[in-house]
Amino acid sequence: MAWTCPMPLRDQSRVVMGHGGGGAMSAELVEHVFAPAFGGPVLAQLSDSAAVELGGARLAFSTDSFVVRPLFFPGGSIGDLAVNGTVNDLAMSGARAAYMSCGFILEEGVELSVVGRVAQALGAAARTAGVEVVTGDTKVVEAGHGDGIFINTSAIGLVPPGVDLRPQRVRPGDAVIVSGPIGVHGVAIMSVREGLEFGVEIESDCAALGGLVEAMLAVTQDLHALRDPTRGGLAAALNEIAAASGTGVVVEERAVPVPPPVANACAVLGLDPMYVANEGKLVAFVPREHADAVLAAMRTHPLGREAAIVGETVQTHPGMVVARTGLGGTRVVDMPIGEQLPRIC
Amino acid sequence: MKYIEEFQDPALARKLLDDIRATVTRPWALMEVCGGQTHTIIRHGIDQLLPDEVELIHGPGCPVCVTPLEVIDKALEIASRPEVIFCSFGDMLRVPGTGRDLFQVRGQGGDVRVVYSPLDALRVAQENPDREVVFFGIGFETTAPPNAMTVYQARRLGIPNFSLLVSHVRVPPAIEAIMRSPSCRVQGFLAAGHVCSVMGTSEYPELAERFRVPIVVTGFEPLDILEGVRRTVQQLERGEHTVENAYPRAVQPEGNPAAQAMLADVFEVTDRAWRGIGVIPASGWRLSSRYREYDAEHRFSVTGIDTREPAECRSGEVLQGLLKPHECEAFGTTCTPRTPLGATMVSSEGACAAYYLYRRLDLEQKTVSREGASVV
Amino acid sequence: MCLAVPGKVLGIEDRDGTRMATVDFGGVVKEVCLEYLPDLQVGEYAIVHVGFALQRLDEDSARKTLELFETLGLLQEEFGDPWEPAEPDANGRTEQPADAGDGAAAQEAKR
Question: Which ranges constitute the DSSP H helices of C11-99?
Answer without folding.
Answer: 59-79
